[in-house]
Write a structure and sequence with these properties.
Number of helices: 8
Strand order of the largest sheet: 1-10-7-4-2-3
CATH class: Alpha Beta
CATH superfamily: NagB/RpiA/CoA transferase-like
Shape: globular
Oligomer: single chain
Helix content: 25-40%
Largest sheet: 6 strands, parallel
Order of helices and strands: HEHEHHEHEEEHEEHHEE
Strand content: 15-25%
Length: about 210
């Protein structure tokens, strides 16, 4: 990565961290995927019950494999025959791993969900939520973060799941009411009432969608 981009990301991350702290959340900056992995594992005690939604960013830094192979009670919903039961276990987990579709430079997290298991677990339930967020997802304000979530993240995700929505064909949000829409629930996390629950690791990488 160009050193000027790296420096810009470092400076921007410090602004985001201050914003997160003002919202009772903890923020960290990792200069590489390896640093992000090490930081995430430091936040997850061995023996913890851990689960996640479909978090591509966690997989990209190696966290998903580390949890599967390590000394953790990892709830792997992909291996569960009863998906609903696996999702419900998330609400009593010690740690929930997530990313966000976008976040603002002053520390607000924006997420869109179809089944809503991810946004509901982020909002309430697990004792700790650890976000893995690439610097490509930082936006100037909530409006631009919502636009990113709807016009970048959502179309790519519906294509990934081979869903039949207008945005899968056009590449941009059509504000549809398709049966396959994944834009069912919108969660804006602007403050955490519970200190030390939400931790956001910003990574100097383009991660996720």
């Amino acid at each position: 990565m160009d050193e000027r981009i790296k420096k810009r990301n470092e400076l921007l991350a410090q602004t985001v961290i201050k914003g997160l702290e003002s919202r009772n959340m903890s923020g960290y900056y990792a200069g590489s995927a390896k640093e992000a992995l090490d930081k995430a594992l430091a936040l997850i005690p061995e023996g913890s019950t851990v689960t996640m939604g479909g978090c591509m960013s966690a997989a990209e830094i190696g966290l998903t494999d580390a949890l599967k192979d390590g000394n953790y009670d990892f709830i792997d919903r992909d291996k569960e025959t009863d998906k609903r039961a696996a999702m419900l276990k998330a609400y009593d987990a010690d740690v929930y791993i997530a990313s966000c579709n976008a976040m603002t430079s002053d520390g607000i997290l924006v997420n869109i969900d179809g089944n809503s298991n991810r946004v509901s677990a982020i909002a309430q339930g697990p004792k700790k939520v650890v976000f893995i967020v690439g610097m490509n997802k930082v936006c100037s304000d909530v409006d631009s973060a919502m636009k990113r979530a709807r016009n970048v993240a959502a179309p790519i995700n519906v294509q990934r799941f081979d869903l039949n929505t207008p945005c899968a064909k056009t590449g941009t949000c059509m504000d549809c009411k398709s049966p396959d829409t994944i834009c069912c629930q919108f969660l804006i996390t602007r403050f955490s009432r519970h200190k030390d629950r939400i931790h956001v690791i910003m990574v100097n990488e383009n991660l996720g969608f």
